[in-house]
Amino acid sequence: MYEMKPEYYTGIAAIDKEHTRLFELAEETYQLLNDDFIQDKTDSLIHLISELINYTRTHFAHEEEYQKSINYAGLKDHMSLHRKFEDKLMEFDLDSLGDDFNSQNDTVEELLGFLTNWLVTHIMQVDMLYVPK
Ligand SMILES: [Fe+2]
Ligand SMILES: [Fe+2]
Question: How many domains would you assign to the chain?
Fold first, then answer.
C-alpha cells in the first residue's frame, strides 16, 4: 500500500533510501491500523512514533546538510517545515491513550493520515525543489 513510486525519487541515492524507510514506517502504521487481532495497540504505537521521531530527525539533518552543501536558497523555509513535522509528531498524546480499542485505533488513523499527507506532499512538492535539475 505505502511504497516508493518512480515519481518520488529525487535521484539522490542517500535521500531516496531514507524516503523509502519513511514509506516503510507508513506501511507499518497502515498494517497496525488494519490489524484486528491486536487487543492493545499502545506498545506498537509508542514504538512506531518513537521510530518516526528518531528516523525523521536523522533524515531531516541529512537533507538540511545536503541543502547547505549546495547553497540552496530555500533552506530556511524547508527547515521550518521540518520543525513543524517534528512538533506535530511530539504532539501525539500517548500518555492518555487508555485501553479503549476504538480510541487507540483513532490515534493510529490520525497518525496514518498525517503521514500520508505529509510524506507525499512534502516529498513531491517541497523536497523536489532542492533537487538539482
Ligand atoms: Fe525528505
Ligand atoms: Fe524535506
Answer: 1
From the CA of 77, which ligand is nearest? Answer: 2
Is 91 among the domain residues? Answer: yes
Q: Which three cell numbers stand for residue 29?
A: 502504521
pLDDT tens across the length of the chain (133 residues): 999 999 999 999 999 999 999 999 999 999 999 998 998 999 999 999 999 999 999 999 999 999 999 999 999 999 999 999 999 999 987 877 888 888 899 999 999 999 999 888 999 899 999 998 8
CATH of the domain at 92: 1.20.120.50
Task: Let me know: does 105 contact 29? Beta carbons within 8 Å.
Answer: no
- Tally Cβ neighbours within 10 Å of residue 128: 14
Report CA(49)–ligand 2 centroid distance (Å). 18
